[in-house]
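Task card 7
Instruction: Convert sequence to structure tokens.
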Amino acid sequence: MKQASSDGKAREGHFSFNTESKNGKDYLTDLNFCLDFALENRYQIMERVEYSLKKYCGGGVITSSLINRNHNHVELKGDLLIHRKGTTHAEKGMLGVIPGNMRDGSFIIVGKGNEDSLSSSSHGAGRISSRKQARENTDIKDFQEAMEGVTAKVDDSTLDESPFAYKNILDVMELQKDLVEVIEIVKPLINIKA
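Output:
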């Protein structure tokens, strides 16, 4: 069922259907296909990175330690369909990754299974400005200085992904201590924006 606003357009957040209906079943089938596709994509990326590490650095195996956590998806838990929008799964003992930004890195976490949050945590730092605002308001020289020490594409085409476009990941992590435990902070050496 869709609820329309006064202008006749459907309102965000007001779309629903019975998951036992054809549309509901089709939606869940498509969703699971997309999740499987995303996982395969991650494996393909990991294989290429692993190949390059072995070839150029004599590196070891990394694919055995893949942490696969999705955000913006639906998951069946008991009788509930939990839609995690801007969040990720954080069951008790479950490993996860919470990204910050191009400069500040990512947090490897273990979930605490907080039922008040439906065993979820934030997906990442979250934006403080839209992509358009970031492109318009970020000085390229400030962006370049902020990215010193990280090899990355730092130009007008990536202004919308600058660290200034995101909330402070340390503050975000502090606010969710009851949801996750940080076990490692991974700082970037190379950042690739596709």
